[in-house]
Design goal:
heterodimer, A: globular, B: alpha/beta, six-stranded mixed β-sheet
Chain lengths: ~350, ~500
Amino acid sequence: MRIHKETINKLPLGTLKILAIALLLITLLTLTLSKEPGAALSAIFFGSFSNSYSFGNFINSSVPIILCGLGILIALKANLMNLGGEGQVYFSAFIVTMTSLSLEKLGLFGAIIGLLAGGIAGGAIAGFSAFLFNKWKTNVMITTYLVSAFFVSITDYLITNTFHNPATNLLSTKQIPSSQWLHTILAPSALNTSLIYAIFACFVIRYFLYKTLTGYEMRMVGSNIQFARYGGIHNRSITIKALFLSGFFHGLAGGFIVLGTYHAALRGFTGGIGWSGLSVALIAGGSPLATIPASLFFAWLQSGATIAMQQSDVTSELAEIAQGAVFLLITSNVLLKGRNKNV
Amino acid sequence: MKPTISIKEVSKTYKEFHIKAVDHVSLDLYKGTITCIVGENGAGKSTLMNLLFGLQKPDSGTISVEGKPTSFSSPTDAMKSGIGMVHQHFMLFDPMSVAKNVVMGIEPRKHHFFFHTKETNKRVQECLDANGFTIQANEKVGNLTVGDKQTVEITKMLYRQSEILILDEPTSMLTEQEIESLFITLKKLKDAHKCIIIILHKVSEVMKIADTIAVMRKGKLIGTYLKEEMTAQKLSDLMVGDSGNYPLKSQDLRQRQHNKVILSAKNLTVERNNRGKPLLHRVSFEVHEGEIMGFCGVKGNGMGVLEAVLGGMIPTCEGTITHNGVDITNIGSRRLRNQGLAFVPSDRIHYGSAEQATVEENIIINEREKYFPLSKNEKRSFIHSFIGSTKIKANVHQTMGSLSGGNMQKVIVAREIHNMSDYIVLSNPTWGLDVSSSSHVHQQIKKLQAEGKAIILISSNLDEIMELSDKINIMHNATIAAEFEMTPSITKKIIGSYMLGLGEKNSENT
């Protein structure tokens, strides 16, 4: 198996160094903030492996990150930055819930249609930015972000007002029937079959990018748009395809959270997954399969911090700080790289 | 009189292209003198100026300013020593005012921190008035004409009290009137005892403005002459040099005229968005089966634009292009490719290849639709037959950017020739290549001609054009200034004088 050399792989500051910095940061913070740093650190680093419940939840939380990472990666291959992952995941999750609910009678088949509808919704949101770009050359990074921010608010409203389920204390929609739930793998944890689909998706994307005509055209547009134009590749349609697919995978991420974990759309339940996806795609350096370990790293940080919060005196924001540090270092690294290239 | 700048035995080699861009050049420059540096493309003029301005470092030799040897590591250093440079492409910020552009980097401050707008406008306006420029300091640069923008660039240097002014091809973007007023300005500056160095292509302009003329050819300084001892004809001979006989073409030219017309272009015109000269002006030609149609000229006279139009990278504003009778005007690169376009662009790095992609990915671009449905083994043999034909030693999985310029070009040429239909556009196909790579490319072109393909060869390399072409179109001022059939009576001298704008539009020879 040949791993194609991509630019992102050759960052000025190595990926592993960045991850090490994040771990160092989390350790230092725990040592300064916690009264019982030993217990806190052991919970952070090893808590996820202490029992099957924690382990299952840790693995499960990596699933949507993998899919978001793939979504970002596809766009990156065409040299497009999709910053709207958050809204695409959130709105799609709502669409999946609503579609599944209205197709309740079809059971699992209804859920599959719901999942597709969610993917298309995510794709449409991202695709809209492609349309704006083709028409007026608007900056994709900005429009994806803004359009997504709009959909976050809309979804907040829909979940808490129009489709709010008064039967629960949660700010959530009605729950989908258990016939539509994905099968649990490691009960009592939330880990479910969506993990298999996510891993499968990595292989599909790898095949798509390196073995199909559209994937090739996308990579050529991303690699050198003038060369693509020179070779007669239709840049505009590639932009639309790349952003649609990017949004589609974010939509799938939202759908799997609903069908596998929460079984309803909860207010604000995406909690930064879109951003994690961005970091993960950058850490993975453009390789679809490397998205899996990168996502596991992110999920491990998050789950470790959550466990530490339950078992000791630190808060789960620790994970966010570490993730934030990774995000900052890796994006600045990529941007720096881009700048050097232009000089 | 002591020289203001003394360049001694300076050399610069571009290792990646194996080109000696500047080869042991020694030159003295004086205050109150306008020195023109002239030569063909690639003669090393711009490189020499970049060395002087600190943009590049010489491999050997010294540059002294006012008697002191200097080694500039950056343009900032050069500016501190009183050297200012106006680049061919302006370095101005369109949305900002003239004054702000002029003071960029050395802004007057209020309380050491705040930008002092009032003071800036006042000082710049004084500077403009003192030099007799009619521009307003608070005008936005974006609203100015090209000529006025250049004046702003010059003001930038005057404001910094530069004593030594370098202008890189200052006239290439200007209209005739703007050139006139630029020359008046330069003469005033000369009277104010500035040391002025101009890179110029056009002999007529050189004769108008120069006091001293330094002629460069192939990196070497051929000689330094006073204007009084120079004539336009002598200068153009010095610039192009004179060498070699070119072989007679095998097939009779008259015969070829009766062959089928493959590609015909009528009145191709490309206008600039804003005012100014057109980039391409009413260019018409017909290319027959088995014919090599050469286009040559000095850089900036429309050859790059012609290449881009033929390659489908930019649309033509007027005129038509037909291929075998089918109208292919402005149909875009995708449909042009389907129509049978084969195209070797002059910019092999930014247009001809994707450096970060693998050699394999670069090879398949034109035949990608055929390639992807192939089975694994078929793909492998496709690629191998390809690499075999190019005779380059490369792993198809290494990145295109890791190849040498020559190998990169071989891959591009092979790709465009592979499965081509009946015509090909080649632009500067051997630029920067060593002798063996160049001759490989030339052989390929001759082979195509023997196969009866129509070939459009755009090149600023006169030797190449004269060796290969059946017909030569000379581009000057964005249009075809003259066309010749390539017969032994055509010498480099004749072509050179047309390239430099000395000859009249010539129709007897066509």
